[in-house]
Amino acid sequence: MGDLHESCGLCGISGCEGDQISLAAEGLLALQHRGQETAGMLVFADGSMRLHKGAGTVAEAMADMPPGFRDGNVSAVMGHVRYGTYGGEDVLNAQPLLVSMAGFQVGIAHNGTISNAGVLREELQRQGAIFLTNTDTEVVLHLMSRNMERTGFNVREALGVALEKLEGAYCLLVMTPGGMYAVRDSLGFRPLNLGRFENGGWAVASETLAFDVCGAEYVREVEAGEIIFFPHGGGNPYSERFGLERKLFGEKRRLAQCIFEHVYFARPGSRIFGDSVYEVRLAMGRQLAREHPADCDTVAPVPDSGMFAAIGFARELGIPFDMCFTRNHYIGRTFIDPASATRSVMVMRKLQPIPEAVKGKKLCVVEDSIVRGTTSRARIRALREAGAVEVHMRVSCPPHRFGCYFGIDFPEPSKLIARRCSLQEIKERLELDSLGYLSKEGMLSCVGAHDPEDYCTACFDGNYPVEIPYDADAESGRGGKA
Known about the structure:
It is built from 16 helices and 23 strands. By secondary structure, the protein is α+β, with helices and mostly antiparallel strands. It has two domains: 8-256, Aminohydrolase, N-terminal nucleophile (Ntn) domain (Glutamine Phosphoribosylpyrophosphate, subunit 1, domain 1, 4-Layer Sandwich), CATH 3.60.20; 276-455, 3-Layer(aba) Sandwich (Rossmann fold), CATH 3.40.50. The strands form six sheets. A seven-stranded antiparallel beta sheet has the order 3-2-4-1-10-9-11. It has a six-stranded antiparallel beta sheet with strand order 5-6-7-8-12-13, covered by helices on one side. The protein has a four-stranded parallel beta sheet with strand order 17-20-21-22, sandwiched between helices. Helix 12 (374-385) links the parallel strand 20 and strand 21. It is globular. The two termini are 23 Å apart. Mean pLDDT is 88; it is low at 235-243, 332-341 and 471-482.
């Protein structure tokens, strides 16, 4: 699909023997799909913090790591990869952020969108606050700072007071002189997971795939509305079972976990919200086949996001599965003038049809979602030009008709093709022989670790789990991203 982006990914390591910086870097690499614009790492060693971040991928940003960055007795590391729309792509907005707060060093990294960040920012600016970045993450630091004296200069208490004012989606890693905190908002919009090393250290990551590459074992999700504290050097355990300190905050209302993590964003090797992404996508494909079977010769995925739904679809119907597109994994700058290039030419840079797999066949293309529709139309035309006699499309989620304000970069609602067009009109615009979307009920039937009502489906049905501080139908109505 390729039209959407997630805001970022988090990986933290605490109290682990060995090279914790390298382990955190490996974890970030596993989360690279969640953001490629900037990457950063904050290290606590020998009683102080040091920060390094830069533009590009993890490898690019960490290539010029300064001398001495790895030196000393490292107690904890937290890293971040970012895709940002709120604040843009400037390295100034890269995370983690590191500040001095009432004489304490405090670092923070964030995944999600604080939906009331704009309102809080204006209020803080009227009170004299000066912001150095355009990210909603900096709002949290200002709220903490404003409450330091009130809480007796207790960083932990100041963080708790700040969290009470936030609305929307936020998973946070916060580094202080005392330890590292992992925080997940009380509705649990974005995923955050807890892992354990054999030597007693801890790992926290947006997706469990990060644990596999750094050698940690998945323990559980960080609960919605939970703060977990990892003291530097250990000590003060809250629980004999987990050996760490935890507490719950916020009003316990409902869960609003983003179902689109399972549809598109998370990698298939991860567990998200307690379910295997791989198994959920296979189930979505099978359910899609039951709801909208297709008379075709071949089932073909749109790589890579449609892959596993297409496998489930093909298995359910007993139709051959084949790769009808080849993907270029090494796309860099284009040598074609973007001003004169057609949309189809730009799309073909990423995916090209395989004529030998396409010619003379009736194809059913399985896609994870259709957003604007322009990319899908170009790909369908390319398949027909390669010799396909029929092209059907099946989509492993319902039509997107509403904007997201909790961490996904959907375009303005008026640019969503399903907002403007009926199913028949979409089929005609995309030049398809048939089109079928997975129902919302069918999609939710494919997850098992939580009840269906524990997922946010606002981008499909407009039922937002919290009030958003602006018109959801407005042209510019997007929330700020970390």
